[in-house]
Design brief:
The structure is a homodimer. In chain A, helix 10 crosses helix 11. In chain A, strand 6, helix 9 and strand 7 form a beta-alpha-beta unit. Chain A is about 40% helix and about 15% strand. Chain A folds into three domains: about 45 residues; about 110 residues, Rossmann fold (3-Layer(aba) Sandwich), CATH 3.40.50; about 130 residues, Response regulator (Rossmann fold, 3-Layer(aba) Sandwich). Chain A has twelve helices and eleven strands. By secondary structure, the first copy, chain A, is α/β, with parallel strands linked by helices. In chain A, the strands form three sheets. Chain A has a five-stranded parallel β-sheet, sandwiched between helices. A four-stranded parallel β-sheet of chain A has the order 7-6-8-9, sandwiched between helices. Chain A starts with 5 loop residues before the first helix and ends in a 9-residue tail after the last strand. Chain A binds a DNA duplex (16 and 16 nucleotides) through helix 2 and helix 4.
DNA sequence: CTGTTAGCGCTTTCAG
DNA sequence: CTGAAAGCGCTAACAG
């Protein structure tokens, strides 16, 4: 028993399918009250549900918003997804989800799939890679996106334009001031902390990570501090943990009475003899920061006493973490909402989209201990 | 410039649309190698992308999996979503997302929307309500679901059958042994802890919450302990926090030298004079447990010294929380995967779907302190 | 205000 | 093995 169709409803109501369509879906003018009621009743009694595919085919517009994330279980992405979801509800559309692990090839695939479904707009939330081995993938992704835009699709990208995309019509970028905010974080940290800085970054070429690293270094240098060493690792909790382990070993080695560092470079800055001020760790996102903190703790080190830790994003689920994590607050949900809105044509609500603004939020994990 | 169509490809290749269709999409037999290549080339050069809506309309199957969650930003749901997403990829389908805040009315709406899009299957991940005011909403939801199934749709529900659903064909339930696991948690806790128990539960009628409460009480009683008091609050972090605050006040009041409880009931069980063993708190999910822990801490209470806390779910993002949270591990991602698979027809992979199994996981937050 | 007539792009019998 | 023709269910010009 298949779902009932508009035609059946029309027949039952004794009208033409066109009329039925007009009353059940919002056409310009509503037909005569009497007939309209008859149709609505027929629809009701048949349990009529319009076939969105047929509607889409006829109107060539699907009521779908495509959302591309690296991993929906990552709180950063799920927060953005929530914003997109909300915007979708406002627009009376549904969201189509694709997880890509950040691989340009699967992003391209996802875009193609969205295009195939005639998604009205696409939101790309993950940051892109710009490594040499990704140029081909990115080019294909850009081509796919261009084609989609050329066919009338709307694209919104969070954070960064896709490398190599011809900035066509219908291509929007929600700017996230990663660099500025990271710089600000660095300068606020530098103002209160003596210790040497070290950065736990994602793989080289990951744009968001690179921006935050660059900004942080700039802030440091503006504050008259030497550039921080950068540890490259994976852009997730376990990457942070590994880096944290490495750092912990170093801290313990540098302690008065500790073994000499296995590192053959001379310990930078602080003279090895005096107990140095605690190391200041900046991880390019909160999840990595938490991983690093866990690693330090597992090695018997305390935060902020033996080292301070700061992150980026201000992930909600992590706010009860102790010591409270210093970070940069990003309005993730708002970012998602805004991306979905700008791709819907109405940027914000008539007014220009208020630019995304974050906020350095210093908490316990970077406090100086008395 | 609209996207190019099958017909255009066919014309370019000098064949009929039918043939083009046969080679581009998996029809029974592949046409002659020579002609096939010609078609493929034409498609390539035109950048042809099949119109999924048209395909769906013709085949009446959309390649879509509908997923209903309360809130995609909640780590419990995003973990399940990830599993569903994976299964979708295996099935070469896409997932359509709907967030409903748990309201039966919007769940019904979501099901209708999925049905309209001719989703091949629907996964409902949130637990349902069974309050008196929800009976109507649930009935409508059940009706919508039944209709969907009758039209050939497949439904998988995580945890609980929808109240009042006629268990039709195509209606699957992924059982989650909430009750048993909660009982087991209670008995393991009762074995090592002396203190009185108190439960922080969600609103009355929320099935998952109720199951866990019931199970926990059973475990307690099997261990010869009196039933725990149940504090009802909202099923999220802030609910846990509020309850935690209330409990903290009580603990402080009950302390030797503390003020008398503002509560007019006599303090249950332990004689008020002796310092009682620390209270054992069980929150029906991790997020609430974290909230409660934060509240206790904010009142100067320490865990597990002044009170112990246990949760449920074993949310990954919360694993680095200190003190490490005792909880019941649930294979959330697997649950999502299994739900999506069972709704796809192939339960598991030919074999019966291995039932979901959790595991009581005791950690620091419920340890006895020396 | 309502009905008729064409498609939207694809699949799928059914002939050739 | 290939092509022609008939829809899938709905909307959108046009007429009436």
């Amino acid at each position: 028993m298949a779902a009932s169709t508009l035609t059946e409803v029309a027949r039952l109501a004794g009208v033409s399918p066109a009329t039925a369509s007009r009353v059940l879906n919002g056409s310009a003018r509503i037909p005569g009250k009497d007939i309209a009621d008859r149709v609505r009743q027929a629809a009701e009694s048949l349990g009529y549900i319009p076939n969105a595919q047929a509607q889409g085919l006829a109107k060539s517009s699907s009521g779908l918003i495509g959302l591309i994330v690296h991993d929906i279980a990552d709180p950063y992405f799920s927060a953005i997804a929530r914003g997109v979801q909300e915007a979708a509800r406002e627009q009376r559309k549904m969201v189509l989800l694709a997880s890509t692990e950040g691989a340009p090839a699967s992003e391209k695939e996802a875009v193609a799939a969205f295009a195939a479904r005639r998604a009205d707009s696409i939101v790309i939330a993950g940051s892109r890679m710009s490594r040499p081995e990704d140029v081909e993938g990115n080019a294909e992704l850009a081509a796919e996106l261009d084609r989609y835009c050329r066919n009338g699709g709307q694209v919104a990208v969070v954070g960064h334009a896709v490398v190599g995309a011809a900035t066509e019509e219908g291509y929007h970028v929600v700017q996230v001031p990663n660099e500025e905010l990271a710089a600000q974080l660095a300068s606020e940290l530098a103002a209160t902390r003596e210790g040497e800085f070290v950065i736990i970054g994602g793989p080289e070429g990951l744009l968001t990570s690179d921006d935050r690293i660059r900004g942080f270094q700039q802030g440091l240098s503006a504050a008259g501090r030497p550039a921080a060493e950068v540890l490259r690792t994976s852009f997730n909790r376990s990457g942070g943990f590994d880096a944290g382990l490495a750092i912990a070993a170093r801290i313990k080695a540098a302690r008065p009475g500790g073994a000499a560092p296995s590192d053959d470079r001379p310990a930078p800055a602080a003279p090895p003899a005096a107990a140095p001020a605690p190391l200041c760790i900046f991880a390019v996102n909160d999840v990595m920061a938490i991983g690093a903190a866990a690693a330090l703790r597992s090695q018997g080190l305390r935060i902020p006493r033996d080292a301070t830790v700061a992150g980026f994003d201000d992930i909600e689920t992590l706010r009860d973490f102790r010591p409270a994590l210093s970070t940069v607050h990003l309005p993730l949900e708002e970012i998602g909402r805004q991306a979905a809105r700008s791709a819907a044509g109405r940027d914000g609500d008539g007014a220009a989209p208020s630019p995304v603004t974050g906020k350095v939020t210093l908490r316990r994990s970077t406090e100086t201990v008395a």
